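Extended Data, record Phosphatidylserine decarboxylase proenzyme
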Amino acid sequence: MNSKLFVALQRLCPQHLLSRAAYWVAESPSQRFNQAFIKWFIKKYNVNMTEAEHTDPKAYVHFNDFFTRALKAGARPIAEDSSHLVSPADGKISQLGNIERGQVFQAKGHHFSLCELIGGDYELAQQFNNGHFATIYLSPRDYHRVHMPYAGELEQMIYVPGHLFSVNDATTEELPSLFSKNERVVCVFKTDFGPMIVVLVGAMIVASIETVWAGLVTPPRRILQRKSYTKAANQPIQLEKGAELGRFKLGSTAIVLLPEQAAHWLSELNAGSPVVMGETIATRSGKSNNP
């Protein structure tokens, strides 16, 4: 389908209604439906079930249980070097590079505002001036849990309401400011090199986003929401490198944001590079961005 037509159809369709309907279908307890759909999905997208903790499709209660399946112990070794940052997810690099003048590169001819991406927090955005970003796209066949690129303490979570456009290549290349338009959950961490943000971006038919500390984050009321998790709020949450952060139920994209000179992306990574959770994607620069 022509990419312009594809985006136009997405604008016209009831995105949230379709996605919420998909959620309820994916949570259906009907074993007959689930087993047929799961088997079809595995074949259609060539899902590698040999690495799953439960290899038998019959082991899953419903489709979302299968979609967010755990992997066998050791299936994703975490790079041990303390100076290495790891991929938060399986997928492919959509783009990575530097944040320039508060703009993040999306695709040829398209950038989006860092401040808009994280919910309009100008002071927080300033901490990432001239920093670094990596956008990782998770395809339907991928493992759909998102993990910590580096050890950190959760400071706040921001839910940003928005659209639910597809995040596939056709839409990314055609629709300006896609990632700052879509519904998303912004997770802000304090690390020993300064702040780090992992953004979980929703998409068409992505019926929910979960985090390990808050459970189901979407769908809530579609208004901007912020929650502090600092020690002052008596809810300190420390997550080690490689620890599960959250998961997508059908879909999508994770964006890692780092401050200036915090790290360097591996030179061999570029747009289209495949990555798996736990492998090194960046190395520390040695400079601390803590105040």
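Summary. Residues 84-284 form one domain.
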